[in-house]
Amino acid sequence: MDHEEYQFRTAAIGGFSKQDVLDYIARANREHQIKAEQLEKDRAQAAQERDKYRARAEEAEGRSVELSAQVQKLTGELEELKKELEGAKKALEEAQAGRVKQESAAAALAGEREELRGRLEKAERAAAAYERIKDRTAGIELEAHCRAQAVEAAAQVQVDKARQEVEQWAAKVQADYDRMRTDIAATISHTSGELERVRRSMEHILTQFDQRDGDLKALLKRCEEAMGPQMPDPLPLEEEKR
Predict the structure, then answer these.
(1) Is 173:109 a contact under the CB 8 Å cutoff?
(2) 10-residue averages of pLDDT along the chain (242 residues)
(3) Which domains are present in the chain?
(4) Which of 50, 82, 115, 221 sits 20 to 30 Å CA-CA off 133?
(5) CB neighbour class for 128 (10 Å; exposed up to 12, middle 13-18, buried from 19)
């Protein structure tokens, strides 16, 4: 209501009409009550909005703390994976060094086997030569013949024994060499598998880091948008100037 446009009727005896004044006061009171109720509704709505934004901010803060904890956990897991990777690399280096040693030992054993094989062939040639000598001396006296037979038998026993020992040793060397090759191949395969598993785990963790970083940035952006400008406190109600 515009006070300046409201016209009071004058009374017959000085002053204004009492009824006009009472109507004006009643009308002003009603308008004041309506404005006061509207301001109270606005204040309550503003308080609700403020509480809602405050709840969102608290939720965002809690989410931020949770994400920080997850980031720390993933960082710890990454450090453990790095340690496992270093251990796997060290194990691979040790396995490679062991393989070199085993290959050197296998080469040495192969050399010894060849040497023993040569000795066996030499013994066989000696036995064959003895056989030829024995044939040429068939007419020697009986005593010499008996001694020759004894020498032949002893030589044959030695040759058979030497051949058997060489064959057993060669078989043992071959089995040891095959077992070492199998162990080395299994070690290299296991180490390669561990390195591949560690590589996939690191790629997965880095992908999770990128996802968590994007989620955190999006969350912070939503928090900033949700907070928005601070709502000003409602002004205190003042009585309208008459």
Answers:
(1) yes
(2) 52 63 85 92 90 86 84 86 86 84 80 81 77 66 72 80 79 80 82 82 79 78 68 52 45
(3) 18-226 (1.10.287)
(4) 115
(5) exposed
pLDDT at 167: 81
Query: Which pTM was predicted?
Result: 0.27
pLDDT attached to residue 166:
73
> Three-state DSSP class for 8?
coil
Q: Which residues, in sequence order, are bridge partners of residue 10?
A: 16
- Of 74, 89, 100, give the one whose Cα is nearest residue 202: 74
DSSP three-state, residue 53: helix
SS3 of the chain: helix, strand, coil, percent, to 5: 85, 0, 15
